[in-house]
Structures are given as C-alpha cells and as structure tokens.
Amino acid sequence: MRMSTFIFALLLFLFLSSPVSADVSYTIDKADIHAHLQTDGTVVVEESFTYTYTTPFNGIVRTLNHPEESTIRDLEAFENGEPLEIQTEEETIHYIYRSGDRETITIDIHYTIEDALRVYEDKVLFFWAFFDRSNESDYEQLTITVHPPSGEVSPVAIGFDATADTERIEADGRVVFDAGFTEAGENGDIKAAFDRDVFDPLPVAYNSSAETLIAERHTERAEAEALFSDRQETLSRLTTVALPLIAAIYAFFIGRAWFVNRSEKQAARRTLSQQIPPKPKMSMPATIMYSYYSIATDQTLSSALLSLVQKGAVRQEDDGQFRLVHETDLLDHEQHLVTWLFYDIGDGQTFSFPAMEAFYQDEANAEHYHLKQTEWYKLVKKEISEHGLTKPSTKFRVMLPVSTVPLLGVAGASLYFSLITPFVISLAIIITVTLFALFHQPRTTEGWKELIKWRAFRSILNERPLSDWQKDWSQDDQMTAFIYGLGTQVKPVRKAAGSLAKNPAPSETVASDSALPAFMITGLIMSNSFSSSSASASQHGSSGGSSPGGIGGGTGAGGGGGGSGGF
Fold first, then answer.
1. Same domain for 399 and 384?
2. What is the torsion angle, in degrees rounded to the nearest 10, for the CA atoms of residue 322, residue 328, residue 332 and residue 338?
3. Quick one: CA dihedral 468, 471, 474, 475, positive or negative?
4. Same structural domain, 283 and 251
5. Which domain, by its residues, includes 376?
6. Looking at the domain assignment, is residue 560 inside a domain?
7. 38-50 pLDDT, tens per residue?
8. Residues 31, 77: one domain?
9. How many domains does the chain have?
10. Which stretches does UniProt call biased (Gly residues) (predicted)?
11. Using CA atoms, how far apart are residues 173 and 152, in angstroms rounded to an integer?
C-alpha cells in the first residue's frame, strides 16, 4: 500500500513539474529587444515580452541559439524588478517560471553576448538573429533596437526575411528594426554596423568594408525587387491576353464534345422503344452496371446469381441449396461466377450460402473474395465494351488534362508573383478540364438508348406497387424487374422482398400461384449473404500501421536564432 502511494505521488510530482504543457494558450502581444553594443565588443541585451494567457500557465520559454564562436552569459529574468527562476535545457532553451491563470504579464530578460561583433576595416558589424524559423510563436508587435556604445556615429543597417526593409536609423545613432507582426517559423537576421572609433581598439578580422558590404546587399535587393516587379508586370500582361484565349480554346473542344454527345442522346430518345420492362440487350449484370454508375456491389452479385437461376443454368433446391444444371453457352463472367461459387466453395454440383459464409470465416481465404469479385467485375465490363455502347475516347480524355500541364506552371508563377487573378483563372481552367475528362462518357445512339430506358425503368420500379407487376407483366418480366431492382438498390423492391420474407403467406398483392415471392426472398437472402461474406473477408484481410512523426528547428543565417513560447 505504501509503495503504491509512493508511486502515485511520484507520478503526480513529475506531471506537475513538467515544463511543457500542450494545453497552454497565449499570445505574445509585444516583444521589445534592445541590444547595447559595448566598447569592449560584448553586447548587453535587454528584452521585454508581454504575454496574454487565456489558460492557466507556469511561465514563458525563451530559446537563445548562438554560433560556436559566441557565448551567452549572465542570463536573468525579472517581473517588475523581482527576479524569476530560470531552468535551462540543452544550453539554449530557458524556462522562466512565473505561474498564473488567465492574465497578462510582462517578463524582462537580460543577458550578455560575447564575441558577437565582427570587426571590418571601417566599421564594427553586429550580425545576429534574435529569432529564426524554429520559433513556434507569433509576435504581434516586434521591435529590435541596436544601440551604439556612444558618440556620434554614421551607422548602416539591413534586415532580412521578417525584418527586411524595416530598418530605421535614428538621429542619436540607434538602429531600429520595426518588424511589427511577425509570424512563427520566420527567420529575422539583422545587420547593423557602426564606426570603429567608438569602440576600444579591436583586431580587424575582415579586410574589407562593412559599409560597402551592406550597400551591396541593398543594391542587390533593389535590383532583385526591380527584376521581380518587371517580371510581374510582364506575366500580368501575358496572362491577360493568353488565359482568355486558352479558356476559349478549351471551351470550343469541350463544347463540341458535349454537343455531339447531346445529339446522340436526342437521336436515341426519338427512336426509343417504350416496352416495359425493357428487353435486355446484354446480360442483367452488365445491364445493371452500365446503367447504375458502373459499380459492382454485393447486390449486383446477387442479381448475377439470380440471373443464372432465371435462365435455367442454376436451380434452387427445397433445402436452400443451389444446384448447377448446366454450363452451356455461359458468358465469361457467368462461367467465372459458377467456378467461384460451385467449384471453389461448393462441391462442383451444389452451393449454399452457409458454406460460403464458413469459407470466408477462414483467414486463409481472406483475399479470395475480393480477387474473385474484381475479376468478375472486369469480365462484366468486357461484355459491356463488346456491345459498342460508348465511343472510343481514351486518347481525347487523356490528352485533354495533359495539355493543361503548362497551365500549372502559369498558376505557380502567378502565385509566386502575387498575381491572384491569373492564378485563380489558371486553376479554374485546370480543374474544369480535368473534371470534364474524368466524367465525359461519349455514348453511341444505342448506348444512350440502353441508359435512358433502364434508368426510366428504375424510376418506374420506385413507383409501381408489386401487385401491378403481376397484373401487367409475365413471370419472366417480373423476375427481370426484381433482378434489376435488387441490383440497382431500388428501396421499394428491397422493402417488398423484406415484407415477403417476414410473411410469406399469399396476400392481396401477391398471387398464390406466383413464383415471384420465393424468387424475391431468395434474392434478399443472397444479398445479405454476399454482404456478410464480403465483410468477413475484409475483416480477416485488413491490416494497419503507423509511422512516427517528428519536429524540427533551425537557426538564422547570421549569429544567434531562437524563439519564444509559453508553458
């Protein structure tokens, strides 16, 4: 008992003393950094950070990266002049403890940097990064001020990335980088150079001019900005002319393809037979898949087996088994289904759904179901393609989206040069053309006839009650109607089969001498059994995994780097 109490207390202590909490929410309203350059070459830094916490907190985090040739010493933290506890990890990550709950606090941080200055022939350069891309927090308002030791100076300065074009030289020689809002993950190197004569005699490390170096950087930046502006204007002019022309060309080809397809559809409507139910041009599985979004489902497989019963190749026995009557004149996908059910699962002559469910409970057969279903699907698609219901369009549908590849370059260039309108137009053209290529299915007149008449028949099945089937249609037509309704998932058809399964006795809606009720009940059982077997195969064949993630950091191009956070 004492041991368990001790372990619990230890775990509680470790949890409460952990320096990082993912639940802390805060904003850094203001970051004000002052770097005071000393005559001996050291830099005394005074930082002030204002945090607003919206959750309980333990303090703030300040990361101070530095190059190998420099060191940071005498780190202190205060609030209103009162010293705060600091815990340092890995020499650069400093946890400053000041706990509280939903309040705004201002923490002052002081430290000294040694060997941070670079001595040139004309000036002494301070090249540093007080934050870099490893910083995980936004600064709502960031200001960095570099103070010369004393005396009259003629400073030169330049900022990079987040501090670019933010430098301002004050009359007293201070250099201010007013960066304003600064996003997390940005670099922000600064360079500020001051006359050598305000420092103690320091050995020259660089036999060149710091002022010239910074001036060259300004010149390079100005030239780059001018080049950027020139290319931006050129791209804007080109896209203003080219994109409407490109859009018009695509509109012509897409419009022509749509018009031709529409003409075939209209021709099909003019010559369409009104026979209900329609006479199948293909096998029922092919008819179902062609007219019902070209997908194969467990209901489609049930319809395929019922179709074999309808044509007499398979007979249902009184004990619920199915007996193979013959294999004469079977289509490829029908022969595949017979082999799958009667030879792989059955004994070569009979097949039953309990046997199928037991077969797929065995993990060794996990892949069998989906391999067989996939091959069956391909064979049904092969039958559809042999009937010439669609026009050859592979080349057109491939070349159309491929031709938009140059537009990806235009979109990328537009985004790079901050040209939003050309970017949006390019992207819209690419998406429109690609979607058209994916969904465009040019059909022949016969193809449209098949599609229109069977989809119209599906609408009829949604509305016509079962009693009207027996009044108006032959028994074979009723079977065709049920097979199609089951395969295309017509809800009233499935509901009627479910009602018959619960109450198989003859009623006003079903004649006592009709074979349809047994046929429908069998179809419903088939559908449920195929679904159950598919689920079993998927369950035994599924697998998963995970991969570890990671985090990264970085430093600025100059000395230093780091960032801020809360815990």
1. no
2. 20
3. positive
4. no
5. 271-390+442-507+522-537
6. no
7. 999 899 999 999 9
8. yes
9. 3
10. 542-567
11. 7
Residue 116 lies in a domain: yes
pLDDT of 371-426, one tens digit each? 998 999 999 999 999 998 888 888 888 888 899 999 999 999 999 998 999 999 99
In a shared domain, residues 139 and 178: yes
Cβ contact 58:21 at 8 Å: yes
- As given in the structure block, the two tokens for residue 367 are 């892949």
Q: Is 176 found in the same domain as 41?
A: yes
Tokens representing residue 19 in the block: 């320096």
pTM of the model: 0.61
Q: Across-strand partners of 113?
A: 43, 72
Q: Which SS3 state, helix, strand or coil, does residue 139 take?
A: strand
Question: Phi/psi at 98 (nearest 5 deg)?
Answer: -160, 90
* Same structural domain, 277 and 263: no
Instruction: Show the tokens assigned to 47.
Output: 């930082």
Q: Looking at 224-359, which runs of residues are DSSP E strands?
A: 314-316, 322-324, 350-351
Rounded average pLDDT over 1-26: 51
**Which residues share a beta bridge with 61?**
95, 565
* 367 three-class SS: coil
% residues pLDDT > 90 (the chain): 37
C-alpha 359/C-alpha 365 separation (Å) is: 7
Give the ranges where 464-515 is alpha helix by DSSP (H).
466-472, 475-487, 491-502
List the CATH number of the domain containing 82: 2.60.40
404-441 exposure pattern, b = at least 16 Cβ within 10 A, e = fewer: beebeebbebbeebebeebbebbbebbeebeebbeeee
The first and second tokens of residue 375, run together, are 């091959």
Given a contact cutoff of 8 angstroms between Cβ atoms, the answer to whether 54 and 79 are in contact is no
Distance CA 190, CA 198 (A): 20
The per-type count for the chain, helices as H runs and strands as E runs, is 15, 20
Q: Is residue 550 one of the residues assigned to a domain?
A: no
String of DSSP letters for 57-87:
EEEEEEEE---TT-EEEEEEEEETTEE-EEE
Q: Per the domain annotation, does 11 fall within a domain?
A: no
Q: Is 109 exposed, middle or buried (0-12, 13-18, 19+ CB in 10 A)?
A: buried
Contact 164, 532 (CB under 8 A): no
- Distant-in-sequence, close-in-space partners of 109: CB < 8 Å, separation ≥ 6: 45, 46, 47, 48, 49, 62, 75, 76, 77, 78, 96
What was the pLDDT predicted at 508? Answer: 46
Q: pLDDT for 282-334, tens place per residue? A: 999 999 999 887 777 788 888 899 899 999 999 988 777 889 999 999 999 99
Between the CA of residue 373 and those of 214, 378, 522, 530, what are the distances in Å? 71, 9, 20, 11
pLDDT at 504: 53
> What's the Rg (C-alpha) of the chain?
39
Q: What is the pLDDT of residue 6?
A: 42
Whether 282 and 253 map to the same domain: the answer is no
